């Protein structure tokens, strides 16, 4: 449900600027992950450049990670979005996705005009832009607080420090096992050599 809503919203923004689909069309058939676990969505790029939601266990070719605390910044200008998004995976696909995200803009007045008509949509959209210009920092702080709650209180997100420590522990364990295997092989070779000489 959430996956389809997120992809529908992304496709709606693409539809408002359909020239951006041209940048995604060469990557038709490739998979991209949007968001951050547990709210990550995996989508397939269609031949027309739009996205189609896939099951969450599909392996993506590139990932667009948007920390929960940075979600409000996605409504801001390109500079704010650039700082909020982390892209990884296939370099060409990641670059194309990055360009699309930087150019993507929500045309509030177009959506409002369908609901309320042009006369009402223009002043409401202008008010929205003024509101966002003066309050985006408060929304960013609210996003950070929600992310901290989701990580520390609700247990919905992993603590990056704990994850990093866990990964380092796994690397250390792997290296220790490799050293132990090498030592066992050496002892086995020495024992074989001693047995042969006897």
Compact description:
The protein is of the alpha+beta class and 198 residues long.
Map the helices and strands.
Layout: H1 2-16, H2 21-24, E1 31-34, E2 41-45, E3 51-54, E4 62-65, H3 78-84, E5 86-89, H4 91-103, H5 108-116, H6 118-153, H7 160-197
Parallel strand pairs: 1-4
Antiparallel strand pairs: 1-2, 2-3, 4-5
Helix pairs in contact: 3-4, 5-6
Features:
five-stranded mixed sheet, alpha+beta, 198 residues, 5 strands, elongated, Nonspecific Lipid-transfer Protein, Chain A, 7 helices, single chain
Would you give an account of this structure?
- There is one protein chain.
- The chain contains 7 helices and 5 strands.
- It has 198 residues and is α+β, with helices and mostly antiparallel strands.
- The chain has a domain at 2-103: Nonspecific Lipid-transfer Protein, Chain A.
- The chain has a 5-stranded mixed β-sheet.
- β1 (31-34) and β2 (41-45) form a beta hairpin.
- The mean pLDDT is 76.
């Amino acid at each position: 449900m959430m996956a389809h809503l997120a992809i529908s919203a992304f496709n709606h923004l693409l539809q408002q600027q359909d020239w951006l689909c041209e940048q995604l069309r060469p990557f038709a058939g490739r998979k991209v992950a949007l968001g951050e676990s547990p709210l990550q969505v995996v989508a397939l790029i269609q031949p027309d450049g739009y996205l189609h939601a896939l099951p969450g266990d599909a392996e993506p070719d590139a990932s667009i990670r948007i920390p929960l605390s940075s979600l409000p910044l996605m409504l801001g200008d390109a500079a704010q979005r650039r700082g909020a998004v982390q892209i990884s995976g296939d370099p060409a696909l990641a670059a194309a996705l990055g360009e699309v995200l930087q150019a993507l803009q929500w045309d509030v007045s177009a959506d409002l005009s369908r609901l309320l008509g042009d006369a009402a949509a223009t002043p409401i959209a202008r008010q929205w832009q003024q509101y966002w210009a003066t309050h985006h920092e408060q929304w960013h702080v609210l996003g950070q607080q929600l992310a901290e709650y989701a990580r520390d209180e609700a247990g919905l997100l992993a603590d990056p420090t704990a994850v990093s420590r866990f990964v380092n522990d796994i690397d250390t364990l792997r290296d220790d096992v490799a050293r132990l295997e090498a030592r066992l092989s050496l002892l086995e070779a020495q024992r074989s050599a001693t047995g042969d000489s006897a």
